[in-house]
Amino acid sequence: MSVAREVANWAAGLRPTAEDLELADRSLLDTVAVAVAARNEPVVQAASSLSEAGRWAVAAHVLDFDDLHMESTTHISAVCVPAVLAAGGDARAYLAAGGVLARLGGALGWSHYTSGWHVTTTAGAPAAAVGAGVALGLDADRIATAMALAVPAAGGVQRAFGTDSKSLQVGFAADAGVRAAYLAAAGVSADVSALDQWLELVGGDPNALDLTGPAIPGGIGIKIFPCCYALQRPISALAELAGKVDATRVSRIVLKTPKGTVTPLIHHRPDTGLQAKFSLEYAAATALLDSHQGFASFTDHAVQRPEARHLADLVDVRLGEGDDGLLAGEFEAEVHLGDDVLRVRSRFPPGSPQRPPTREELLRKVEDCLDGTTLDPETIRWSSASRILRDHL
């Protein structure tokens, strides 16, 4: 059986557990709130030619505040929530899409990510097709066809990180997936083995596809800070020292972490807020300078602060060996204050699957995202979004 048919059969027959639905409930709320927070971002306004799913996927991802599936290194909800809601779907359709994205990303493997691919978008297009297909009530054969029709859009690279192109790639994936599902529903044909060929061409292993376990295996990490997931651990760890540190006395900052954990952190001396979301050096600066590392910490103005640039210049990054993954090993930091040295270590940041966000942490994030927003259709202009927010707040 082809990968597309195997996956489509699983998605069409998915029966979520109570635990699956709890995860979906949290992800829907988190993603809608993050997307609403970004609705007026310039790149979202510029993406007006995209479909509803595409525009809201751009919004869900541009702030880099969206969730992450650790094992596959994919931003599941930024692609899957807009695709599913635009097609009129529910939690089950979201879980089907998210489960496929997690598993395709896992089959692609860490080497796919370290080769420079943006896995959220390479695996995101066929996963969005699954979610939209389930939302439209397609049978397994039509869902498999939709996945094949989404293959031409299954691309995206990490050089886009720190630019508008990164969130646009996510929008293209969601847009293509929904379009593919509607084409499949209209009876358009495709060779479903195209997905198998694509998977092998981009270095995936079809034999690694495991459809057992929860709908989304391994759970999902919720971000507490609006930046790359690779920065969640460094910021949360160093923030523990902020109250003990006079930034003017810092003479050196030594950061130790396995080399795999910094793969997406490609901007060492950022000039813009977008670049800062992928800078380990700036993460250290904002963790020590700001009492709350929220949206205000990742503006162009914040990045260009002389004190932030000064602290970033004091950072010495030492990369060690270790397992693959953004939370591999342990993060260690030393903040030197003359003859005094403050040390901190961290394994799992708040919001990770191992330390799920508390209800209070999640609601604080949602409130930050909705600051100044009225929950009416004229403000939000996204089907289902107002209802999801009103049901939780």
From TrEMBL:
Span of domain MmgE/PrpD N-terminal: 57-195
Pfam families: MmgE_PrpD_C, MmgE_PrpD_N
Gene3D superfamilies (alphabetical): 2-methylcitrate dehydratase PrpD (3.30.1330.120)
InterPro entries assigned to the protein according to its UniProt record, in alphabetical order: MmgE/PrpD_sf (IPR036148), MmgE/PrpD_sf_1 (IPR042183), MmgE/PrpD_sf_2 (IPR042188), MmgE_PrpD (IPR005656), MmgE_PrpD_C (IPR045337), MmgE_PrpD_N (IPR045336)
Organism domain of life: Bacteria
Chain ranges of the MmgE/PrpD C-terminal domain: 225-373
Family: Belongs to the PrpD family.
Protein name: MmgE/PrpD family protein
Lineage: Bacteria, Bacillati, Actinomycetota, Actinomycetes, Streptosporangiales
